[in-house]
Amino acid sequence: MITELNFEKLFSGMGLIRMGVGIIFGLFLLLFVAVFIEEVFLGGRKRRQAEKQARLRQEAAERAEE
Description:
By secondary structure, the protein is mainly α. 91% of the residues lie in helices and 0% in strands. It has one domain. It is rod-shaped.
């Protein structure tokens, strides 16, 4: 009887809303962790700076050829 009551509450209107909010919050948390790991452990900032410097060098080389 208790299992049926919990099952009914889970799939009632508010239960579905709570489940949806929980899923969205969980996905947001997962995204935050992924961004943090990329920035800290995979050198996100250093990579972007290196790409910017390479782009600037390439543009300077192209201007020098003209």
